[in-house]
Fold each of these.
Amino acid sequence: MKIVLVLYSAGSHAIDEPMLLGTTENELGLRKWIESQGHELVTTSDKDGEDSELDRQIVDADIVITTPFHPGYITRERIAKAKNLKLCVTAGVGSDHVDLAAANERKIGVLEVTGSNVQSVAEHVVMTMLVLVRNFVPAHEQIVAGEWDVAAVAKDSYDIEGKVIATVGVGRIGTRVLQRLAPFNPKELLYYDYQPLDPQLEKEIGARRVESLEEMLAQADIVTINAPLHESTRGLFNKELISKMKRGAWLVNTARGAICVDQDVADAIASGQLRGYGGDVWYPQPAPKDHPWRTMRNKYGAGNAMTPHISGTSLDAQVRYANGVKNILESYFSGKNDYRPEDIIVIDGDYATKAYGQRTKK
Ligand code: NAI
C-alpha cells in the first residue's frame, strides 16, 4: 500500500527537538513501523498550488494522512484523481479539510484521533481569553520595545471575574473550557449546542444552556467557538451575527478559521463592535501574509491574540495523535477495521452520525 503523509517541515528546529513528531522530518515516528509492515511511505509538506507534490503522489495513494495544522486539502478534484484512495486519516481533530461528501461517494473512510488534543486546545482558549481581556500582548510588546507606559495598557485591560462567558459548542473542548473557567468566578457560563450537557455535569460546572445562539451572544462578554466546521457553521460569524453580539465583546476561535468571515471580524475590531479576537485557526493554512487577522487592532492598538495553528499541537498532543494514527493504521492493515467508534467521521459511504458535528460526547 502507498501512504502519503502531509506535514509541515520542522526545518532547523528538527535538530533542537526530536519530539516534533508531526513534521516531515519525524513523520509521526511511523516510518520504520510502516515499512516493516511492507508498505510505502511518501512524506511531503508541498501541498498547495498547481502540481504540488501532494497532487503528484495522491494519484496512486491508498491512504493520505495529514494534520489540521498544515492540512493537505483533500478536495473533490483531488479525490477524483486518487483512484486508489481508501482512507484519509487526520492526525489530530477536525476533518473539514476533506470533502466529506466526495469521500462518501467513493466510500473513502475518514478518521481522526478524537480527543487527542482537546486538553491542549482548552488550555489555549483560556490563555487567549486571559491574554485578550488582561491586554497582555501590547503590555509585553511595550516592555520588549524598552518602554514603560502603564496607562496605555490599563485603559483596555479588564478582569475575567464577573464576566458572562459563552461557548458555541460544548463537546470535548467546550466542556473542558467551561470547567477550566469556573474557578475564575465568572458572572455566568453559557452554552449553545444541539446536544445538552449531561445534567449532572451541567450542575457541577454551573453552566446554563441557551437555546438560541443570538440570545446567548447578546448576553455574553466573552464568546468562544468550539464547534466543528460544517455546512451550518461555515461563515457563521459574519457581519450580521457579530452585530448581535454585545458591543465590545471578545471572541475566541480555536475551532476553524472558516467559521468566521475574515474581513467581517477585522471590521468589527476596527469599529469597536468586537474589543478583541484571538485564536489560532485560519483559512487557508498557512495564512497568506496579507491576511487581515495578522494586523487587525482595536482603537487602543490592541485586541489581537492570533497565533499560527499551535493550540492542538503541543509536544504532549503530538505523542497522542501520533499514537492514535498508528492505532487507526493497525486496524486498517489488519483488515479488521475495528476502529474506535468516536474516531470515525465517515465510513462505507455514510456519516458516522447524522451530521458531522453531532457526534457522541465522552
Ligand atoms: P466534539 O465533537 O467533542 O464537540 C463538538 C460539539 O460541537 C458537539 O457537542 C456538537 O454537537 C457541537 N456542534 C456542532 N455543530 C454546532 C453548531 N452549529 N452550533 C453549536 N454546537 C455545534 O469536538 P471537539 O473535540 O470539542 O472539537 C471541536 C472542534 O475544535 C473540532 O471539530 C476542530 O475543528 C476544532 N479543533 C481545533 C484544534 C486546534 O488545534 N485549534 C484541535 C482540536 C480540535
Amino acid sequence: MIRTVSTKPYSDQKPGTSGLRKKVPVFQQPNYVENFVQSIFDSLEGYQGKTLVLGGDGRYYNREAIQIIIRMAAANGFGKLMVGQGGILSTPATSNMIRKYKAFGGIILSASHNAGGPHEDFGIKYNSENGGPAPEKITDRIFEISKKISQYKIADVGPVDLDKLGTTKAGDMTVEVFDPVKDYAELMESLFDFEAISAMIKGGFRIQFDAMHAVTGPYAKEILERRLGAPDGTARNYHPLEDFGGHHPDPNLVHAKALYDDVMSPSGPDFGAASDGDGDRNMVVGKGIFITPSDSLAIIAANATLAKGYKKGIAGVARSMPTSGAADRVAEKLGVGFYETPTGWKFFGNLLDAGKVTLCGEESFGTGSNHVREKDGLWAVLFWLNIIAARGESARQIVEKHWAEYGRNYYSRHDYEEVETDRANALVAELRGKLASLPGTSVRGMKVAAADDFAYHDPVDGSVSEHQGIRVMFEGGSRVVFRLSGTGTSGATLRVYVERYEPDKARHDLDTQEALADLIAAADDIAGIKSHTGRDKPSVIT
Ligand code: G1P
Ligand code: ZN
C-alpha cells in the first residue's frame, strides 16, 4: 500500500559541503527526513525500476532513517534497494557499490567526523550514478524543492531485517542486504600489492589502526588483520557505536592524539593510521613523523607507480584551494595536469570522470583517486603501506627525502568554532572589502603579492563557483586563506589556513607553529580575527 502524505516544508534543508547535516532532534521533527528524501527523489529523473544503494556510518538514528528511506524508495518506484548489513556502509564503499553495480545513485547517512548520539549530529547525502556527491545543480534543486514540498510518498511495509544477509521485498521493490566489506576489500586488493605488505608485516612491521568506533572497524579487521595477516588488535576501537564511544570520530592530532602518542613512543608501532565516522578521511603517522594530508597527497603522487593499480602513471592531480601547494610541484615535475578546486569532494568528480586527474586531496585529511568518487581513508592507509613496503624505507625517511627534493610546505589550519554567525559574516565582509587594497602592502615584513576571493571555473562543464575562500598570497609562496565552514551545525566556523614554502633543506626541521608564527600574526592583522570573533585563540589547530 502506497500512501501520499501531506506535509509542510522546512526552510532549512539546504545541503552543505557534504549533504544535509543537523542535530538529531532536528531530523526527528515530524516529516523532516521524509521531506528531504522526497526532495532528493523529486530532484532526480528516470529512476523508476532502478537501483538505489543505501547505508550509513552506524551513528545514532541510522537504523530509523534507513527504514524510512526503504519505505519511501519503494513508494517512489525504485526497482531495487541495496543496503549494507546492519545499516553499515562507508562512504567510499558506497561509492564503489554504486559504480560496480551500476546503481542509479545512493544515499549515505552520516555526519562524517562530527560527534554522534541523541543530541549530536546526523546527516543525509545523495550520491549520483558516477558514485560521487551530487553536483551543485542537483543540491540546489533539492533545496528549492524542499522549500515548496507539499507531499511525500511512503509504502506501508514492515521494517526490513537489516542484520540478515539476503534478498526480500518491500512492496514491489527488491531489498538486498549485502556484506558492506567484501566488494570494497576486493577493490583494495586489486589496487595494492597485498603480498608485499603482508611480507613486510610478517617481517615485524607493526601497524596500529584506530577506527574510532566508527564505520571502518569492520573494514580494517577484514583487510589489515584477515587479508594482510596483521595481528589481532591491529585495528582498535573497531566496533561501530552509535555515539562513537562519546568521542569525535575525527582523525587528527586532537581527536586521535592517543594513537599519535603511541606511534611516537619508542616501543610503539612503526605506523599508525585512523579514519573518521564514515571512513573517507585518513590520518597517517610514521614513527617520529606526522604526515600532513597535503604532504601525503604530494608523496602518494610522487610514488604512485609503486602500487599496481597506478603503475601506468597518473593523469593528473587535483587539490582543494586551501590544501598546500606541495602536490603542485610533483605534478609539475611529472609533467601531468594540475587543478585547484574549491573545498569539498564534489568538485573533483568532473575532473575524475573526464580522466583529467587520477589523484585528489584536501588538507582536511581527505585523499583519494579515480577508483571511486569519494575520498577514501583506508585506501590512503594502504597506499602508504604499499609505498613503505616497496621502498623498504620508513615513512619518515620517505617524507624527509621528499622535502629534500621538492622543498617543504609548512602548513597548519586554525579553526574558530561556534562563532556567532553575524560576527563571522562581518569578518568576511570586511575582508572582502579590503582585498583590492592589499597587494603591494607589507604585513609583518612580508609583501602581499596578490589577494582574491577564489572562484573556480570548472574546465569540464564550464560552471563557475564563486566566493570559495579568501586568499592572501605573499611573495615567496607563503599564504593565508580564510573561509567559513560549510559543514558546521551550530554557529559559524572560521577556518584560517596558513602555509609557508621552505625550499632550504637546512630549515626543514622547525616546529610547524613556530615556522608559521609570522603568518599567523599576519592573518590576525589582516582579518581582525580576535576583535571580530572575540576569541584570543583558535578552538582547534591541526
Ligand atoms: C570540511 C573540510 C572539507 C571537506 C568537508 C567534508 O568542510 O574542510 O575539506 O571536504 O569537511 O568532509 P568545511 O567544514 O570546511 O566546509
Ligand atoms: Zn567523512
Amino acid sequence: MSRSKFFLLVGTLSLLGVARADDGYRLWLRYDKIADEALRQSYAATISEIVVPEPPAQGPGGFGDLGTATVAAARDELSAGLSGLLGTTIPVVTKASRNGALVLGTPCSNPDLLALVTEADLRAAGEEGYILRRVAIGAEHRIVLAANRDIGLLYGAFTLLRQLETHQPIGQLSIVTAPKIQRRMINHWDNLARTVERGYAGQSIWEWFVLPDVVSPRYRDYARACASIGLNGTVLTNVNADAQLLTAPFLQKIAAIARVLRPYGIRVYLPVRWSAPIELDQLKTADPLDPAVIKWWTVKVAEIYRAIPDFGGFLVKANSEGQPGPQNYHRTHADGANLLADAVALNGGIVIWRAFVYDAANPDDRAKQAYSEFVPLDGKFRDNVLVQVKNGPIDFMPREPFHPLFGAMPKTPLALEVQITQEYLGQGTQLAFLAPMWKEVLEADTHRPAADTTVARIVDGSADLQRISAIAGVANIGTDRNWTGHPLAQANWYAFGRLAWDHTLTAAQIADEWTRQTFSNDPRVVAPLTSMLLESREAVVNYSMPLGLHHIMATGHHYGPGPWVDDQKRPDWNPVYYHRADAKGIGFDRTATGSNALAQYAPGAAKPWDDLATCPDEFLLWFHHVPWDYRMRSGKSLWEELCLHYQHGIDTVRTWQKTWGLLQNAIDAERFAHVQGLLIRQERDAREWRDACTQYFATFSKMPLPAGVEPPEHPLEFYEKAVLRYTPGWSAGK
Ligand code: BDP
C-alpha cells in the first residue's frame, strides 16, 4: 500500500471511530482522542488550561501533607489525559489566564479558591475527598478542583477525566464527595518467588529479586490505576506469609515500592508470619505475652517505620489452614492482635486480623467456626485493630449468605474481605463480573436490633460509630500485559475500588462507566457489553453451584467440578461434606435439625431462611437438605430445577458468544479475539460442570434429565477420571 493510501485508510478508520489496536495495558485510563467532534469541541471550550499555583516558597502552609509529588501526579495525569482526550495540548500554568481555566488547590496552596467553595463543601470533602465544580466568575467560567489535602486533588483529577472518558456533560459539573470507607485496600496473595496464590494473570508484578536496584515502571502504572478508583492501601504479599519479608534487605525493597506508591496516596501494609521471631532470630517462642517476643516486635516495628515512615500496618492470618498463631501458645486471637497493635500504635499503624479460621479438630459445621471463635472476643481488641471477615462464612463461593460475624461484633470494627481474583468463579478464564455479588453482601441486612445495620453500614463504621473502617479485595493482578488475564476481569479491579469509595453505586453504573472507559462509548458496545457483565455472575452460579450449592469444585486448583471428591484429609475440604447428596435429597441442613448455623444470625435474618417455604431458592441447599421431589415455587421438582439451572447457565454463555460476535467491528481486534476465544472455553467449561454434576447427582436422585436439558457429552466416569493440569496459576503449587 502506498503511503498516501495508508494514511487515507487510517484517517477513514478513525473518522468512522473504528477502534485502534489495544493490548489492554492501559486499563480504563486510555485517554484516546474523543472521536465525536462536537463533543470534543464542547469539552475543549469548557477546559482551556490547567492551573496549578506555585506553592508558597516558605513558611507554613504549602501543599498538603503528602507534598508536591501528589500534586505533580494530579497535574501530569490531567495534562496527559486532557491533551489525549481533546487531541490538543492543554497547557499547565500557575495563574488562571483565560475562560475555562481548571484551577486546582487546597486551602493552603491556593487561598483564592476559598472564595469559590464553601466551608461546608470542604467539611464534606473531609480528608480524602474533593470538590469539582464549574463556577461563573463574571462573564467567565472556571472549573474548580479543591480539596483539603493533595490526595483529594488527585482523586478529583481522575474523576474529571472519567467524566470526559464516559462522555458526561460537564457544563453543570458539581461534585462534592468523600469516601465512605477509610482504608480501601488491595490484598496481594503474591509470594516472594513471584508465584501468586490464586493468581491467574501471570507472575507477581513485584520483582523482589532485583528490587531495590530495579524499580519497574509498572509500579507507577499500578499506582495510577489504584488511585484512579480511590484505593489507598496495599498488602504487597500473601497472607500465607513468609517471615523473610521482615528482614532488612526486604524492608529496603519494600521501601522502594512504597516510594513509588506514596504520591498516589497508597500506603504499604505487610502480612505477618506469626513465627517470624523464631524463624528470623531464633527466639524460643512466639507467645504474644512473652516479654522477649513483645520486645522483638517493638524493635522490628521501629525498623519498619525507619524504612517506610508511612507504613500502614499488619495483616495477619493466624491459626488458620496450618499457619502458626497465638493459639499455639494457648493465647487468643485478641492477645496476638493486641501485641502487634501496641507495637504499631505509636506510629499510627493498625492491625487487620483475619477471621478466616476453621479448625481441623473441630467437628462442628465449618460455616459456624469463625463466629464461635471471634464473638467471645468482641470488645477485647485494641482501638487500632480491625477484624477482617470474608463476605460469606465458607470461602468466596459463587454465592453465600453474608457472614454471621457482621451481625455479631458491635464493639469491633469489621473489615469486609472480598476476592477480586475469581478463585471459584472461573479464575482468569471465565467472565464473571463481581460487582453484583459484592452489592448483594453490602446491602444484606444483618437485622441486628438497631436502626440500620446492613453489612455496608457495619463495614463503613456508621452503624456503630467505629473509629476505623476498611474493605479489602484480594487482587487479580499479575504480569500479563493486560494485568488481569481475562480482558474483562479488569472490570472487577475497577468495581472493587469504586464500591470501596462509594458502596451505594449500583453494579449497573459501574459496569457502564467501566465499559465506556475501557472499550467504547458507542451505544452498540455499551448496552450489550454491560448486559453481559451484569448477567455473568449469576450465569456462573447457575452452571457451577446453583440453588445454594457450594464448595463442590475440584481439589487443589479449584477450577471445574469435583462433587464426588471425598478423599481429602480434612472432612471440610471434601465437596461431599457440603452437598450431602443421598437417596433422599441434597443440601446442608443448617437449621435446628442440622448444624443450626442459622442460630448465628439475628432472628430477622434467620427467619426467612429457616423455613423451606420462605427460603429463597438461591440459598435453599445452603440451609436445607431438600428431597429430590420437593415442589419448588416454579412448580417443578428440585431435581428438575437443579438440572435446568445448569442448562440455563450454559444458555446464557451462548447468548454472550452471539452478542460478543456483533462487537467485532466496534472494538479493537486484539481484545475482540481474546474474549471470543475465552467465551468458547467458558461454554465448554459450563457444559462440563453440567454434565459432571447432573450425572453425579443422578446417582442419588435416580431421576432422568428433565426436558430442556441436553444429554451429557461423556459418561460420569470420564469426568471423575479427568485430571486437569496446568491451569493458570498452576505453578503456585495449589
Ligand atoms: C482460600 C484459598 C487459599 C487461601 C485462603 C485464605 O483457597 O489459597 O490461603 O482462602 O483466605 O480461598 O487464607
Amino acid sequence: MISESEFKKRRDSLANKMPNSSVGVIFSAEPATRSNDTHHPYRQDSNFYYLTGFKEENSALVFLKTKNELKTVLFVQKKDKTLELWSGERLGAKEAKSRFLVDEIYLSDDFKKKFKEFIKDKKSIFCELGSKKREAKKVLKLTKDFKTKHDIRPLIQKMRLIKSAAEIGLIRESIEITTKAHHRAMSIDKKGKFEYQLQAEIEHEFKINAAYSDAYTSIVACGNSANTLHYIKNDKPLVDGELILIDAGCEHNYYASDITRTIPVNGKFTKAQRELYSLVLETQLKIISMIKPHVKRTHLQECAERLLTKGMIELGILKGSYKKAIKLLKHKKYYPHGIGHWIGIDVHDPAPYKDDKHQEIALQKGMVLTIEPGIYIDKDDKSVPEAYRGIGIRIEDDILVTKDGYENLSSGIAKSIEEIEAISSKF
Ligand code: GLY
Ligand code: MN
Ligand code: MN
C-alpha cells in the first residue's frame, strides 16, 4: 500500500515545480457510460490517483502557490443517504479531513465558489489542458484571462517514471496474480475449448485473487489469430497442434502487469514451433540481460531487430544478406512493434520517453518496463517455409531497472520450452 505521507510527498514535489502565484488543479475521472443508463465500474483517473490515492468521483485536488507557501485543497462529495443507497458509501468531508494530509477539505458542491476565491491573486494555472472532463473545461473558462496556462499532466507523468519501493511492491503483487493466471492457462486441458474459454480461466484467476480487473483486454489468440497484434475477439477454437499467444495481465490496487506467453494447445511444441520460439526467447533473454542504468530503449530495440533478423535469415524466413536485410528493415514485416514500454498505474504508463531537450531518456534505477519481442508469420505468406506459416509468437516480461542491472519481476512465470511442457503435462 502507498502511505498517506508518500502521497503528500508526491503533491509537495509536484507543487515545487510550479512558480509562485500559480494555481494547480486536477480532477477525478468522470464515470464512463457502458450503454444507455448503465456504467462501467468506476476507475479513478491515474494521475489523480497517483497524487491522492482517492478512489471517489466528483473530486478535485487544488494547489495554491503564494510566495514560497503551498496550500493543498481537496474537494470531496458530500455524504448523501439516498445516493449512497444506490451507489455506495462516500467518505465525506469529516473522514477525509482525518485521512488526507492536505491543508483544507471542502465539498465538491462548493468548488466553483471556492475556486473563484482561490484564483483572485493568481497569475498562472496548471490544469488538464485539452481534457474532455467537464470540470476541467469550466476551470479554463474561469481562468480565461490568465496569461500563462500549462498542462499539469506532463509534470505528474514525469514523476511516475521512477517507481518508489511501495509502487514496486504493488507491481509485484499484481504480477503474482497474473502468474497464477498464466500457469492456470498452461496447466488445464484445452482440447475442444475456445479462446474465450481460456480467457475466462485466466480472468477467473484475476478475480478470485481480488484483482480489480484486467489491466487491458486479454489477447487469447490461437494459430494465425496471433498475427493480428491487437486481437481481442478471442472467439475461435483452440486447434490441436497450434500455438496460443496469451497476452494477459491484471490490475491490482491500481497497478498493472503485462505478460505474454505463447504455449502449445496440446502441451508439446512441434519442431518448427520450437525453432521460432527459441529465436524469440533467446532474443528476449539477451535484451533483458542488457538492461541497466544509462542504457537506452532505442539501443535495445536495435539489438532485438538485429538478433531477430539474423535468426530469421538462418531459418530461411528472410532471404539475402544480413547487411541488406538490416539496411532495408526487412524485419518489420515479421516484427513490426516496439521492444517495450513503461508500465505502472497504466499498462502503457504515460511517463515520457524524451526529456525536455527532446533527447531520449536513458534507463534509471526504479524504472519498470516491458520487454516483448515477437515474430508473426501470416498463414498465407508464401515467401516463408510452409512449416512456419500461421505462427505468431511473443514473449513479454516486466523488468525493474536496479542500481547496476535489472530484476525480472515476472521471472516466476514458466517460459522455457521445458518449463511450459512440464506444466502442460499435468493434463
Ligand atoms: N498488452 C499490451 C502490450 O503488450 O503492450
Ligand atoms: Mn506490453
Ligand atoms: Mn502485453
